[in-house]
Write a structure and sequence with these properties.
Number of helices: 8
Shape: elongated
Helix content: 25-40%
Structural class: alpha/beta
Order of helices and strands: EHHEEHHEEEHEHEEEHEHE
Largest sheet: 5 strands, antiparallel
Radius of gyration: 22 Å
Strand content: 25-35%
Number of strands: 12
Strand order of the largest sheet: 1-2-3-5-4
């Protein structure tokens, strides 16, 4: 079992956000699927906030760790020596996540069990351990592909998906949001879009600090010297 991260925190409200940020950073770095990153962040936040609400304000320390297991699995674990707070037994509830109902208490259990049925809580030698496991970690790098041609999107998605997690976007606006949140390392985009070109997006990207970790490739059928010169000034490769 390889330890990817381990640190002991003084548990307070700002720490919950800090742990969620660390969790997202590490999982993004090892190319975990975005939906699994979001689910892990939600479950960690749900557990820690419940722990905060129901524990004494003194001596609140929690050890947060991530361990790489065999068979493409990742263990997320929280350890503490506070009075036991077993969320599963403290808030038993039959509420279903897709019921559309709002209820008092128990939703945390439902959320955790919905996303990670393997989640567990146990107390060993006066130490409480809450853990859940991400399975089938996807090691493919994430690629964003922007094109307003749905057929072309589907074709390249099918061609690239063996080696990449492909996020397909039909316009620059949705593409930009994915650039901000997905942790993608490759941006593939068509030059001509329905509402103009992708050049404004490229200029916006150049003005940010996001391009440092993003390889950008442009697709176009226009091989005019004018376009090539303009795109080269933006620091891009044209295919």
């Amino acid at each position: 079992m390889d330890c990817l991260y381990q640190k002991t925190f003084n548990l307070d409200w700002p720490t919950v956000s800090e742990i969620r940020h660390i969790l997202k950073h590490v999982l993004t770095a090892i190319s975990v699927k975005n939906q699994d990153i979001d689910a892990a962040g939600l479950v960690a936040t749900e557990y820690l906030t419940n722990l905060l609400r129901h524990s004494d304000e003194t001596a609140r320390f929690v050890q947060f760790s991530m361990h790489k297991l065999a068979d493409k699995q990742l263990l997320i674990e929280f350890k503490d020596s506070m009075p036991s707070y077993d969320l599963f037994n403290q808030q038993p509830n039959q509420w279903q996540i897709d019921s559309g109902e709002l209820v008092e208490g128990g939703m945390g259990v439902a959320l955790i069990k919905h996303y990670f049925p393997n989640a567990s809580y146990k107390t060993v030698d006066q130490q409480n351990i809450f853990s859940f496991c991400l399975t089938n970690i996807d090691k493919r790098p994430t690629l964003i592909y922007i094109d307003d041609d749905k057929a072309q999107l589907a074709l390249l998605n099918a061609y690239l998906s063996e080696h990449f997690q492909v996020i397909c976007c039909e316009d620059s606006e949705s593409g930009w949001q994915e650039i901000l949140t997905s942790g993608a390392t490759i941006l593939l985009l068509d030059h001509k879009l329905k509402n103009g070109t992708s050049e404004p997006l490229l200029k916006k990207l150049n003005q940010s600090n996001l391009k440092t970790n993003l390889s950008v490739v442009m697709l176009t059928g226009d091989d005019s010297e004018e376009l090539i010169k303009r795109i080269n000034l933006l620091g891009l490769m044209i295919i």
